[in-house]
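Anyone able to model this chain together with zinc ion?
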Amino acid sequence: MDEKIKELIDVSRDYGKNKSFVIAGGGNTSYKNEEFIWVKASGSSLETIDENGFVSLSRAKLKPISTKNYSQQSAEREAEVKQDLANAIVSTNGNRPSVETSMHEVIDYPFVVHTHPTNVNALMCSKNAAAASKELFGDDALFIPYTDPGYVLFKKVATEIKLYTDKFGKSPQIIFLENHGVFVAADSVTEINELYEHILQNINACIEKALPSDDALRFESPLLDQIQTLHPGFTNFLAKGISSNLIHHFVKDASTFDKVKTAFTPDDIVYCKAHYLFIPEQKEPLDLIQVAKSSVANYLEINGYLPKIIAVQGVGIIAVEDSIKTILNMLEVYTNILKISFLSENFGGPQSMTAEQIDFIDNWEVENYRRQMAK
Ligand SMILES: [Zn+2]
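re: yes, here you go
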C-alpha cells in the first residue's frame, strides 16, 4: 500500500475514534497527489476505516465541476453533479464517494481532515460565529457563512478559497463552516494535528463555564414503556431513555429546552430530524401519557413526521426508532447538541438552523441516502 494512503488511514482513525471530533460516523478525510484523490466513502466510518473505505477519483475529471454550468433547479443540479462525480471515479469498492468530495478537491493541500468537533461547533453554531472566529483566528482561517449543502456550498467555498488565495498568496488551511464544522488542510499529517491543536486551544481559552457531566443517571418515566401506544406509527418501534446532569440542565422547563429544540447542523437532521419534542411534567402518570399522545399528534401535524427525540420535563430524553443501533447514534448526536448549546453561551448563545435551511435538508436526496447507510 502507498505510504501516503497508510497515513490517511491512520489520521482518519485517530480523529474517527475521538468522540469530541467525530460523532456517529460523521466527518471525512482525503489525500490527493497530482493525478488522484482518495476520499472517504459516503456512509463508511472514520473510526474503523481501511483502504476499502475510500473512493479514488480522477482529479482531471473532477476539476470541470467547479466551472461547469449546471441546472438552476436544485434537485436536477445535484443529480447532474452526482453523475459527473460518478464519472470521475477510478475505484469505488462498491461505495459512493462522500457528498463533500468536490470540496476536498478544491482545497489545495495533500491532506484534508474534515470533522465536526463539539467545541468548534460551539463556536460555529453560536450567534457570534463570524465575529468570534475573526477575533480568534484573524486571517489564519476562512469563515464561510451557512450555505445549503451540495453544489451551492461547494461553489461558495471554491469562490472564497480563490479570493483568499489571491489576497494572501496561499490557500487557507483552516476553513470554518457556520452551523457545520471545520476543514483542516496541510502538506502533512503532523501539520494537520498541530492546526487542530491550535484551533482547540484558542476556542477552549474562551470557555468559562465547564460542561455539566454527561455521566448516565437513572432514567425513570412511565412514558418509556408506553411509547408504542402514543401513536400507531410507533408500533414495533424501540425506545431508550437517558438522563444526566447535562440533560437535566435543559429539560428543566420549556424555556431551557428552547435552546435545544432545533437542529444546529445538517448532520443533526440526518440522525435526529430537525425538531425535538418537549413533554411538560404532569402529576399523574395517566395525564402524562395523555399529554404525550396529543403532543406527538400535534408534532406530526406540524412537521409531517413523527418525533425521534422526546424530552420529558425534569426527567430526561427518549429516543424512538426501529433499531437499537440507530437509537444509540441518535442519543450520541443529541447529547452533542446539548453540549454545543451549553458551550455556545461563551459566544453569544446558540444559533439553530432556520426553517428555510431545514426545509432544504429535508428535501435533499443525498442526505436520505446517508440516512439509509447509517442504519
Ligand atoms: Zn461535514
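The first strand starts at residue 28 and ends at 32.
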